[in-house]
Amino acid sequence: MPGLMGSDYFMHTGGGSNFLCLTNNPIYDKYESGFQRTAVIHGTEYQSGSFPGFKNNIDQHNAPCAVCYVRSRGSQIMIPASNKCPSGWTREYHGYLMTSHYNHAHSSEYVCIDEDAEVVPGTHADTNGALLYVVEGDCGHGLPCKPYIHGYELTCVVCTK
Predict the structure, then answer these.
(1) Beta-carbon contacts of residue 140 (< 8 Å; ≥ 6 apart)
(2) Residue 37: its pLDDT value, please?
(3) Which residues neighbour 117 within 8 Å (Cβ) at sequence distance 6 or greater?
(4) How far, in Å, CA of 130 to CA of 151, rounded?
(5) 138, 124, 136, 98: which is closest to 7 by C-alpha?
């Protein structure tokens, strides 16, 4: 089921911290007209800069998402810092680990973005909202410098079984 990736604004200190896959066809029930500024959700924008790891130019585009179901494989795991699945698991996709900027007010979860990432058509603009940055290893602060290399972008893989 395709959708739009959403989360809280990158400089807000409250609100949700996870990314949601919002439907492309929202259904409203009861609502109050106008914007009450209580809890909000924004689109999620890639901030990949000139990073060459993605096959497409995704920088400054909004991120789509999909909810997938594999009937024969009921378990799913995302493995950071690897692009290979353990023996007996099936690789669904691999790419790069992304999350919010370490210096922004809003924290978020880590997500694995496919190296062949897509964008929401017509969204190439610096609109901000929720922001995704490629994660680099920062060894020396508890992350061992061997095998991790300081400043290298981390891969990831999504596997099912």
Answers:
(1) 150
(2) 80
(3) 46, 54, 55, 56, 58, 63, 95
(4) 23
(5) 98
45: how many CB neighbours lie within 10 A of its CB? 26
Question: CA–CA separation, 131 vs 8, rounded Å?
Answer: 9
Q: Side chain identity at 130, as an amino acid letter?
A: A
Q: CA angle 120-126-129, nearest 5°?
A: 75
What is residue 156's predicted lDDT score, i.e. its pLDDT? Answer: 98
Average pLDDT by stretches of 10, the chain with 161 residues: 93 92 93 88 96 96 92 93 98 97 93 97 93 94 93 97 95
pLDDT reported for residue 71: 85
Cβ-contact 39, 63 below 8 angstroms? no
In eight-state DSSP terms, residue 153 is B
- Nearest in space to 116 (alpha carbons), one of 46, 66, 41, 53: 53
Rounded CA-CA distance 120/7 in Å is 15
Give the global pTM: 0.91
For residue 107, CA distances in Å to 16, 93, 122, 134 come to: 9, 25, 27, 14
Q: Which amino acid is at 86?
A: P
| CA–CA separation, 114 and 89 (whole Å) | 18
